[in-house]
TrEMBL record:
UniProt cross-references to InterPro entries, sorted A to Z: LolA/LolB/LppX, OM_lipoprot_carrier_LolA-like
Pfam families named among the record's database cross-references: LolA (PF03548)
Coiled coil residues, start to end: none
Top-rank taxon: Bacteria
CDD domains according to UniProt: LolA
Keywords attached to this entry: Lipoprotein, Signal
Signal peptide residues on this chain, from the entry's feature table: 1-20
Protein name as it appears in the record: Outer membrane lipoprotein carrier protein LolA
Transmembrane segments: none
Length: 217
């Protein structure tokens, strides 16, 4: 009888999730996403240290790298895997440490699959979402919300977010790509409203001795 009861509970959960998936914008999920988005957008800027884990089932490979990102509005500065990517909202500098070279290009939001400062408002346009339940991350209770793009040509077919029940912060998110690869981003340290220099979101050539500049604009 106990086993039958457990199976009935599992079946009920599946039915509830399926019902939510049929709803383009699940109200429960939307309420949580709105609270998360409001929290981050109320900050002038924030800085986060994170880990990125890439899983490739086809190659039977798994790799984790660490990075740091600072975001202020539509500007961001990202350092990861020997690269620095700086975006001031109109121009992008991509610096590659191993060859001491920086590429400069115009920033076009329409050409970007997903930029680091979009994750907190991603759900507002072009995505369906539903509440997938609760889980534990680092001993903390989190909401689990899954998003799927309305554009079937999108190479990312699902994004799973873990949002803190305690303070609405985004703890981690996982991207599922059609090629089978999975990318998990986990926030390790978060600093709201850090003090930033006036030219923080611009590449300062004087700080990179002998750098080769390639202007692609």
């Amino acid at each position: 009888m106990k086993r039958l009861f457990s199976m009935l509970l599992a079946l009920l959960a599946v039915v509830q999730i399926a019902s939510a998936q049929n709803n383009t914008k699940d109200p429960q999920a939307e309420k949580i996403l709105d609270a998360m988005s409001k929290k981050y957008q109320s900050m002038k800027a924030f800085r986060a240290s994170f880990s990125q884990t890439t899983e490739s089932p086809s190659a039977k490979a798994k790799e984790t790298i660490n990075g740091d990102i600072t975001v202020a509005g539509n500007k961001f500065r990202l350092a990861v895997a020997g690269q620095e990517i700086i975006n001031n909202g109109t121009t992008i500098w991509t610096y590659m440490k191993d060859v001491n070279e920086v590429n400069i290009s115009d920033f076009d939001p329409d050409d970007q699959e997903m930029t680091p400062n979009q994750i907190y408002s991603l759900y507002k346009k072009g995505y369906k979402y539903y509440y997938a339940g609760e889980a534990k991350e680092g001993g903390e209770a989190v909401h689990v919300i899954e998003l799927t793009p309305e554009d079937r040509q999108n190479q990312v077919f699902k994004i799973r977010m873990h949002i803190s029940k305690k303070d609405n912060t985004l703890k981690s998110w996982k991207m599922f790509r059609k090629n089978g690869n999975r990318y998990t981003y986990t926030i390790k340290k978060f600093t709201p409203n850090p003090t930033l220099e006036a030219n923080y979101f611009a590449f300062d050539k004087s700080k990179y001795k002998g750098v080769n500049v390639v202007d692609l604009r």
